[in-house]
Structure to design on (648 residues):
């Protein structure tokens, strides 16, 4: 199942409802597409894609509305993910913005399709990432050059929480503040799970806020699934001019899908088994149903009169599924 | 004091960098607190807004350079070769995959000077960069060639560049060559023209010994062609074929580990071009961890001093006569 027209997302953006509710719809529709992409590919990092989705949607759709036409502008706002394995979610958001095409997202992890980790050859991708720990340094370089060249726009980079075990992260936290690179915003997708276990049981990050503050950063913390709270933090950040900024976004790995939300999985299991891999046919269908029913409820609750599924094609997956010969 | 160092490679590099940075406004220099050997402070004084002191954080420095390059500027990244190319190798690789251009200064490349010991001597940097597809590696011989190599890297080269830099005063025999050096990318320069035997090598320390060896070989009526191979990892096939076909004995001598250095690169190319047949090929380089000591002691220990080289060469030539 796939939302087969990006123009449909445009339509949602034009609804007369508040941005937070729009973001909720877009996020869930992107979840459908991400799930389908991973299902067709047969693999992909599903847990982190879902935990980062709401942050992607807010930043790409509402904070910085990066359309196809301004992808090459020197003054554009730059956003990328340092952990990179959340890229199926980012692709689905880029598709919802009209940057990627349907044919692209149907070919996740294929030789003529989209790479398993971000690559500059793909429209809308700002940096090659995936090997953990490099993102803040790279974003810092972009900020420095923007300042030097007099280009407008800020740089936002998303990291993982497990990623904060990499030594380079601490090199970069230290140099960024020392070098007065204050137009940089870092967001930690703090979903508490790295691969299959709690971050705190692998190597505890302890008091992350105090730690990062000690490096000379302005730190905020909020629910990474609440669009209004994310929005508030970004507004606060705009007022902080003398420090680089970091948001610890508390998220849930697998957010939006009952079966794979870590808070539920870890009650039953010792290990989180949805870090990567694709759902079975049965699981996939259940997950899609869950998202659809949530969207329907939201529509009736808010007394909206639009059909969110007019552009969802049920057959699309089946067709592409067969043509790609994947089981 | 700096004027006395006019003919040092390191000092010349900085003077050229300043000269070229006046023409190319996109150049930015990043340093991991190892600016003294290059006298980069002079650059920082002239271009305070184009010099980034990043402290002893090589990985962060290299990725930062990557971000700067993505914005269309040209980063020149400095640290000791052993730290830069090994510790930050993954960051260098990641930058390279973005197909931007960055110039890496592999300062203190090679075996010598050897007083600091194996933590600092860099015998792996070529092999660590060789396998990255869009990389050009150079080792300029003297203060004149370093200017030519840097000019090429800044203005003509499209790929990433690594410039290996020997530190310390120029060696005696190399000093005599003065401005006879004329750099051409991918093409070595014949410092001596001989017959039957050709020696490919690079760098002011090892080539200095080779030139002394040539004097001893003359007594035995052996006149090798010595080639300054300041381009380490790509060659003009036409030129290489021509020079190899003129000789019977081919030697490569690396100021680097014997594995993954110039010798391997030349051997691979000769094999690829099928011009190795009926030639006697020998690869010389460093096969152990580098020893600590004075220049003379360490050259001798690794059998790279002129006398040891003479013995090695004469044995190979004799055995196959």
């Amino acid at each position: 199942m796939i939302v087969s027209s990006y123009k449909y997302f445009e339509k949602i953006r034009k609804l007369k409802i508040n941005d937070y509710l729009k973001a909720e719809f877009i996020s869930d529709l992107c979840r459908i597409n991400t799930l389908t992409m991973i299902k067709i590919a047969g693999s992909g990092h599903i847990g982190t894609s879902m935990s980062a989705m709401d942050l992607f949607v807010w930043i790409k759709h509402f904070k910085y509305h990066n359309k196809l036409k301004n992808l090459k502008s020197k003054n554009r706002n730059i956003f990328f993910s340092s952990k990179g394995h959340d890229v199926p979610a980012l692709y689905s958001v880029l598709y919802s913005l009209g940057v990627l095409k349907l044919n692209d997202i149907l070919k996740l992890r294929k030789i003529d399709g989209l790479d398993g980790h971000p690559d500059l050859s793909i429209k809308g991708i700002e940096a090659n990432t995936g090997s953990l720990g490099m993102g803040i340094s790279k974003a810092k370089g972009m900020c420095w050059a923007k300042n030097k060249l007099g280009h407008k726009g800020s740089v936002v980079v998303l990291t993982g929480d497990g990623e904060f075990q990499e030594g380079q992260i601490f090199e970069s936290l230290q140099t960024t503040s020392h070098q007065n690179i204050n137009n940089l915003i870092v967001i930690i997708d703090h979903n508490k799970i790295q691969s299959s276990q709690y971050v705190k049981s692998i190597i505890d990050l302890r008091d992350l806020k105090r730690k990062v503050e000690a490096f000379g950063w302005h730190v905020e913390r909020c629910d990474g699934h609440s669009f209004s709270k994310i929005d508030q933090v970004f507004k606060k950040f705009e007022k902080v001019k003398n420090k680089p900024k970091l948001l610890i976004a508390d998220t849930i790995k697998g957010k939006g899908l009952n079966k794979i939300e870590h808070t539920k999985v870890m009650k039953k299991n010792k290990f989180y088994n949805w870090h990567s891999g694709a759902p079975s046919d049965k699981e996939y269908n259940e997950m899609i149903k869950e998202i659809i029913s949530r969207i329907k409820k939201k529509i009736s609750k808010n007394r909206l009169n639009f059909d969110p599924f007019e552009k969802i094609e049920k057959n699309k997956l089946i067709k592409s599924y067969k043509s790609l010969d994947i089981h | 004091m700096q004027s006395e160092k006019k003919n040092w490679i390191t000092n010349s590099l900085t003077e050229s960098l300043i000269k070229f940075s006046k023409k190319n406004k996109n150049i930015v220099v990043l340093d991991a607190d190892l600016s003294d050997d290059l006298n980069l402070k002079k650059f920082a004084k002239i271009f305070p807004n184009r010099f980034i002191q990043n402290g002893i954080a090589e990985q962060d420095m290299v990725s930062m350079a990557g971000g700067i390059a993505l914005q269309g500027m040209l980063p020149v990244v400095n640290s000791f070769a052993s730290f830069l190319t090994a510790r930050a190798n993954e960051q260098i690789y990641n930058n390279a995959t973005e197909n931007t251009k960055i110039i890496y200064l592999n300062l203190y490349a090679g075996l010598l000077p050897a007083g600091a010991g194996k933590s600092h001597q860099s015998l792996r940097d070529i092999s660590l960069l060789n396998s990255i597809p869009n990389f050009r590696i150079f080792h300029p011989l003297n203060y004149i060639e370093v200017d030519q190599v840097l000019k090429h890297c800044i203005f003509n080269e499209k790929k990433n560049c690594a410039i290996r830099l020997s530190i310390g005063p120029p060696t005696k025999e190399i000093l005599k060559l003065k401005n006879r050096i004329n750099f051409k990318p991918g093409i070595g320069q014949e410092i001596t023209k001989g017959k039957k035997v050709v020696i490919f090598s690079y760098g002011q320390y090892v080539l200095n010994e080779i030139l002394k060896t040539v004097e001893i070989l003359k007594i035995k009526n052996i006149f090798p062609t010595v080639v300054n191979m300041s381009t380490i990892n790509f060659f003009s096939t036409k030129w290489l074929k021509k020079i190899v076909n003129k000789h019977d004995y081919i030697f490569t001598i690396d100021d680097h580990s014997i594995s993954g250095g110039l010798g391997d690169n030349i051997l691979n190319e000769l094999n690829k071009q099928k011009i190795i047949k009926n030639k006697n090929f020998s690869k010389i380089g460093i096969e152990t961890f580098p020893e600590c000591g004075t220049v003379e002691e360490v050259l001798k220990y690794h059998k790279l001093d002129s006398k040891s080289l003479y013995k090695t060469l004469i044995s190979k030539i004799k055995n196959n006569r």
Chain B touches chain A through 29 residues (CB under 8 Å). DSSP finds 13 helices and eleven strands in chain B. Residues 2-165 of chain B form a domain with the Rossmann fold fold (CATH 3.40.50.970). The first helix of chain B runs from residue 9 to 23.
